[in-house]
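note to self: the first set is below, dont mix up w the second
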Amino acid sequence: MNIYNAPNTYNEDEIKIWNILMYNDFNAFCKGNWEMVHNDFEEKEFYAIQGSKTNYKLDWTLQYDSLAAYKEDWLHQSRDFLKLDFLCDPLKVLFESTKLSKIKIQGDLALVHKEFNGTFEVKGAETIVLDWISLFTLRKYDTDWKIISFVGYLPKQ
């Protein structure tokens, strides 16, 4: 299995969703290129909730009330990420340590569980641990899927 391609068991819609949440997301982030993912979002509907890796739901917050706010933070995080001196190819680490563990499509909506489980070894810095789940909601417009929201950094248990 090629880690840079959607699993061959996926149907056409699942492949499109995988390309948005895995291929486009990781390649764009590792290049600091927002334009590679901009069209993967539905700007009018977009919002995101921060789960803070805690089971205590009262600590969850509305993190982004607009795509513009998310874009600004995404670019900041990507710039900081690209400054690090990784011991392994970060793109490879992302693909090896992340999977879409569940895709549920109902009509023109999809709920996707994106599970992170790995580490980045960084020269001269602490190891970055990837250990959470993010839930993405996508809506289908004609033949294209678009991210309309997500709940990020949820604990796995």
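second set (the one i keep forgetting abt)
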Amino acid sequence: MVKVGFICEGDVEKILIESVNFQSFLKRLNIECVKPVINATGKDNLLPHRIAEHRENLTNKGPEKIIIITDLDDNVCLTLTKDRIRPNENEIVIISVKQVEAWFLADSVTMSNFCGQDFFFEFPESENIPYETIRKELLKIKGRGYGRSAKLRFADKFIQSNGFSIENAANHPNCPSAKYFIK
């Protein structure tokens, strides 16, 4: 079994990595998730002078690889986003386009179950603020939704209770960052 550590940009990514579905996915791939999953609490804390402490905390647990998960946000280029982190040789940077919530839009199976009707969002990675798009879609479909400040509550419920699957998101024809993550 390969030991892998995770450094996440924020809370939503950490919830995703620690979820039962994701941990089961890792086990099927013969990957052991090193604990704890690190929450860097913001993309600026992934800069080289700030990420060192997180790397050290994981390195002491003996991972063979470290995966760093961040959002593209308003950056123009995946390569520049990756380069600003300056990953070490044993590190892989995964960049969700634009934000990790785009992967939620791409998981048509879970979104359909969550909404109580068929759901397909054609271009999830083209949304500047995918959580806002989810809020609007839920309001339109269900007549109610989540507030702007309820993103973590929504993410936790969507991932933990409704079974978000990175595999479903990766199967979406227009979600290449989720496909890259799976690879």
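remember for set 2: The chain has a mean pLDDT of 92.
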